């Protein structure tokens, strides 16, 4: 009988015992339905296993515990990990704003030269609630940063990501700190101002402050010209 053969191949000892009891009682309709349910369950498990679910005994690569379920088989590197460690790994990497989410075992053995990132579909499927929202926000931010018209504020203490209305506009006002940003010299001033004139004033102010504070210590420092970091990469600056 085909059903009996399928039953022996796909079910546990307990399931076979239950099916045999039904046969002995000659409850054929219940028996056939029971076997059909078992086959459907097996098909479902096979489909879920292809998506990384684990329904058998495994050893977690993060905590080394032996578990019988509630695990994730990372599809790209084929390492099994329990759900708790999977969630904590994604949480930590999300907090660190990593470029790619990676397997903790691959990280531990320093496969920095080559490792396969965690499949995004598995993160979406196994991370729920606040953790999923954090991952979604991080991935959205990465997508926005890849746009040509996205720029960060030149003020390091702000670092706000701004999306510009035009790709080649000369500057912008930061949405967060409201400071003007010049994209030509990467400095905090109105883009309509002359970059060279602005930077000359900045250097003059910085040099005056330096010499004013240290003129008693060493007069030779009066000859120093110190460029401010925000102005050091200007295409128009001629020292």
UniProtKB/TrEMBL annotation:
Q: Which domain of life is it from?
A: Eukaryota
Q: Which UniProt keywords apply?
A: Metal-binding, Repeat, Transferase, Ubl conjugation pathway, Zinc, Zinc-finger
Residue span(s) of domain RING-type: 56-239
Q: What is this protein called?
A: RING-type domain-containing protein
Q: Which GO terms describe its molecular function?
A: transferase activity; zinc ion binding
